[in-house]
Amino acid sequence: MSLNGLYKEVILDHYRTPRNRGELENPTFQEGGHNPSCGDTLELYVELDENDIVRDVRFDGHGCSISMASSSMMTELIKGKSLDEILELIDIFEGMMHGEAQFPDSDEYLDVASLEGIADFPVRLKCATLAWDSMKRGIEHYRES
Amino acid sequence: MTENPVPSDVVNERSPSLDVDKIRADFPVLQRQVHGKPLVYLDNAATSQKPRIVIDKLSEFYSHYNANVHRGIHALSEEATDAYEEAREKVKDFINAESARNIVYTKGTTESINLVANAWGRKFLEPGNEIVLTYMEHHSNIVPWHIVARDTGAKIRGAELTADGRLDLDSLEDLLNEKTKLVAVTQMSNVLGTINPIRQITEMAKKVNAKVLVDGAQGAAHSPTDVREMGCDFYTFSGHKMCGPTGVGILYGKYDVLDEMDPFLGGGEMIDEVHLDHSTYKEPPWKFEAGTPNIAQAIGLGYAIDYLNNIGMEKILEHESDLMNYTMRRMNYFEDIEVFGPLGKRGGIVSFTMDGTHPHDIATIVDQEGVAIRAGHHCAQPLMRKLGIGSTARISIYFYNTTDEIDIFFQALHKVREIFGNVAERTV
Fold first, then answer.
1. CA–CA distance, A134 with A113 (Å, rounded to integer)
2. Any chain B CB within 8 A of the CB of A38?
């Protein structure tokens, strides 16, 4: 267990210069999330096309480097994907956080795979999963409506 | 410039008040290493560490005289009851209460406040009555009042803070009127380290005949406590923040106030007579102690009080004050650190943020250096909103901490800067 496994350069890069940060004016759905124990907050804005493919996504919120970098990475990854594909990615991410799954060996997943070191820091798991949990809940709410 | 500059006018010398090396030897956990480094425990506002004597006394209870209290007539029960009630006497002396009958055992400050909210609040609060809190309260001195206000129709008011994080007494004065039935205020903020002028507050509250509850969770552990001098109706604190076990806390109440309150929990030990359709209750404090209490923990708290008294609460206060002066002067040296709370007199708590680094990341990185600190909203969301921040990092000291440990903490903060890349030392 070392800090090098946690604070990788790619994670710090997403934290310092987050991708897809901000709001969308007319999202198809919007989902908030927060960690009551630590005060981190997140708001996701998701715009779908007519085939329920993510056309655009933004996130806003306050949190630590892990929660913000994880949000940034997730928004990059899900753009252009269908909701079912995204749910599969969320499953892989949750598995990775418990040291039980890995993303496929492809450039597309390089950034998000860098978060696997967090599995060694159980108290920080909720930071990493905030965006993914919120997205999953957002999809469920969207499908219920 | 070195990695860990110490301003030339800030001298790292052991406080003359206490023989801290000797004290530290009493605490087994302070001998251990964390991530290969000596533990530097700076999360004392969350809970304190325990001296060997308290740990041994818990074990002794279970090994030698474990029995229920106030029930059996056998030898073990008598020994257990004596020790349990003797600890109540020690608590009474520790806070200078009128009598041991003013001392109710609870499981902690939170339960003490909930007891008052339910047993006093539900009986005496009426629609339109007002409960006055402050913006620096811990959730445990806010949420119980929400619940009882919702059920009684009482309203919650909040006294404002000054720009440097002290209680704004003018704002408090403005809130007090004939509708005010209770002022519930913390003795010391668990975020800002602010120490409130309790005596002055009780005098203000008495003018409108309001009761005063003091949250002493961060108070009793750190300085001499005199509930009669404070003049409050209720004083609440926890054993585990003052070298005692978890699971035991205290509610002090003025006797006539305790006497007119309803019971809190019903059950064994709190009753006088029970019929199938009604019952009568014991007198306070036993009226509030339903069921088997945390016996070993109460006895352990008594020994924690002995331990603190042997050192001396005045000396503890002096040592912590010296250590805080040292800490604050070093804090102010760094331009990338913002400190919250009063610049002058404060208790042994410093909440801070660092430019470009979230408090969680600070806590994780210093933990790898063996330094235990807290990060988050510290169960004080209304205060965090006032401060306009989501969270802070917090160090909180106790009498066993040293200037050397503070130096290690600042060294660890430099690791934060290495990783997050924002070295902004003030040049002197």
1. 19
2. yes
Q: C-alpha distances in angstroms, B69 versus A58, B64, B104, B284?
A: 61, 14, 15, 16
Q: Confidence band (pLDDT; 50, 70, 90) for B1?
A: very low
**The pairing of beta strand B249-253 with beta strand B271-274:** unpaired
> How many angstroms separate the CA atoms of B406 and B323, rounded?
8
**Structural domain span for residue B128:** 65-310
Domain spans in chain A, listed from the N-terminal domain onward: 3-144
**Residues 6+ positions from A56 with CB-CB distance below 8 Å:** A24, A46, A47, A79
Tokens of B223: 């300085």
Nearest residue to B158 via CA among B168, B144, B150: B168
Instruction: Check pLDDT > 80 for residue B222.
Output: yes
Domain A3-144: top CATH class = alpha beta
Q: Check if A17 contacts B (Cβ < 8 Å).
A: no
Give A82 to chain B, closest Cα distance, Å: 33
Structure tokens at B84: 């349990």
Using the beta-carbon criterion (under 8 Å), do A64 and B419 form an inter-chain contact?
no
**B423 SS3 class:** coil
Model pLDDT for residues B40-62, shown as the tens digit of each residue:
999 999 999 999 999 999 999 99
Q: Smallest CA–CA separation between B255 and chain A, in Å? A: 38
A7 to chain B, any CB pair closer than 8 A? The answer is: yes
Nearest Cβ partner for B419 among A7, A40, A123? A7
Q: How far is the C-alpha of B364 from the C-alpha of A74, rounded, in Å?
A: 23
Distance from CA of A38 to the nearest CA of B (A): 5
**Within this chain, do residues B96 and B187 fall inside the same structural domain, yes or no?**
yes
Structural domain ending residue among the three candidates B310, B331, B359: B310
User: Is residue A39 within 8 Å of B358, Cβ to Cβ?
Assistant: no
Is the pTM higher than 0.80? yes
Q: Are strands B37-38 and B33-34 parallel, antiparallel or unpaired?
A: antiparallel
Residues of B known to be catalytic: 379
- B381: nearest CA partner in chain A: A39
